[in-house]
């Protein structure tokens, strides 16, 4: 993720914790280019983040669906930003090959 030129990289556990850091102003973005996270990890944090003006999508910028017929795993990774308007910058600047390899990373495990 050096291409994004982060000031600092915070390594903490849990999707909810990472989104909380966005809400508290401790981080600007949550970039998780892996399919490891599940819908129950992101559903409530996304709702609160959205209410506060932030945005959470997959790594390609598509919204996740939360209903009984969707796969439980967030197969295309997670990208969240504290400010919804900043989201497009991350979508444009994360290299396409990183986005394309998200699902493949699960197969290697």
Element layout with pairings:
Blueprint: H1 15-23, E1 29-32, H2 39-51, E2 55-57, E3 78-81, H3 87-93, H4 96-100, H5 102-107
Antiparallel strand pairs: 1-3, 2-3
Helix pairs in contact: 1-2
Provide a short characterization of the protein structure:
This protein has 109 residues and is an alpha+beta fold.
General description of the model:
The protein is of the alpha+beta class and 109 residues long. 37% of the residues lie in helices and 10% in strands. The chain has five helices and three strands. A three-stranded antiparallel β-sheet has the order 1-3-2, sandwiched between helices. The protein is globular and about 35 Å long. The mean pLDDT is 88.
Summary tags:
alpha+beta, 10% strand, 3-stranded antiparallel beta sheet, single chain, 109 residues
Main β-sheet description: 3 strands, antiparallel
Rounded to the nearest angstrom, the distance between the terminal CA atoms is 21 Å
Class from secondary-structure proportions: alpha+beta
Kindly state the number of beta strands.
Answer: 3
The proportion of strand residues reads: 5-15%
Strand line-up of the largest beta sheet: 1-3-2
Order of helices and strands: HEHEEHHH
